[in-house]
Fold this protein.
Amino acid sequence: MSLPTLDPDAARGADLLVFDREHLWHPYTSMTDPAPVRLVTGAEGVRLHLDDHGEHLEVVDAMSSWWSAIHGYRVPELDAALADQAGRMAHVMFGGLTHAPAVDLAERLVSITPDPLQHVFLADSGSVSVEVAIKMALQTQRGQGRPERTRLLTLRGGYHGDTFGCMSVCDPVGGMHSMFTEVLAPQVFAERPPAPGGDVEGWAEGVRRLAAEHTDELAGIIVEPRLQGAGGMWVYDDRCLVVLREIADEHGLVLIFDEIATGLGRTGDLFVSSQVTPDILCLGKALTGGYLTLAAVLTTSEVAHAISRSESGVLMHGPTFMGNPLACAVALASLDLLAARGWEQDVRRVSSALSAGLSPLAGAPGVADVRVLGAVGVVHLDHPVDSAKATDAALREGVWIRPFRDLIYTMPPYVTGEEDLARICRAVAAAAEVA
Ligand SMILES: *Cc1c(COP(=O)(O)O)cnc(C)c1O
């Protein structure tokens, strides 16, 4: 006969899960029929500590907390930066005031991004930065005497965030368009660009035609360069970016690269924008090494000047937590660490391990495609995943993943070691087999 559990931590954990289930929304979940969640009690290195019905489990985080925790957890340098800044001030308004963390971060961002990007807006999340970028494109057109240009050209298969402006440029089929058709700005959608080595010219012809057709109403072009993330983990040919740059120049459109997911090394370049330079660049996710919410919008001087010539004379945006000092200080420490640790070798090392571990899955039953790009590994199934089954299978291998649609993928922290990378690949394989 087993005795009733007296473990106070287990009881506390159970209480938390009960309240969570009844009162707390999680991303894309139902309040009345929620998917199960697991309790995290801590995280260190590349591991999450889970409380599984009173049992302590340590699992490798193959998601980097939605692609942000590139250095892993409880990173001494980042902890120290945060504590140091907390000892000075946690936050002050950015209206009429400024501070060293924001100025230093802006200076660093200007120095590590392509030369033409000189001006920085510090936003409080990726979605807000995309809203700001869209607003900038529209104000740029107003400043150039073309206020009727308010639409955006974008790509099918994209994802740019969950707020209304962002939703309007997300993939119109996989996104939330059907539910909000009447309230979303009607944007112009080009075909999903071809995979590397594909028919770029054929695709370009279609986009050129679309741009020409809508030239009088278009303000800008917005895309995730090289890798379309949450819209389906689609990798595409960099030559498409050259085509988009040409189209933007030809029609006087503001070219926006949303590098919230791809920025800061994830695809093998520090920024895809170093290959083709946009007029506006959005950064987020990994910017603070996954510690705090922060995003940045960088623009050229042409864009900054055009915005100033619009009727208001100013950029019409200013969130309460703009330039939060804690987030800026930890972002700066994260950028220091990225450079000091040699992110390039790390990403190359992760990439080889993912290629070696995942490419054998190509051709396995139920697998449509396997893609590896930088520190991103994707197993694309030929059917929708059974998310619960896939997650459980990976957890049995000691790995946390979060599959969606027909995709099982990993974006591990750059610092993940060889053994943990092999474990991640085994877990992805196990998940793909049962999903
Ligand atoms: C995650 C993401 C966003 C939204 O960022 P949030 O911080 O979640 O608002 C926008 N664009 C891309 C490409 C993203 O991956």
About this structure: The mean pLDDT is 96. The CA atoms of residues 284 and 295 lie 4 Å apart. The radius of gyration is 22 Å. The longest strand covers residues 55-61.
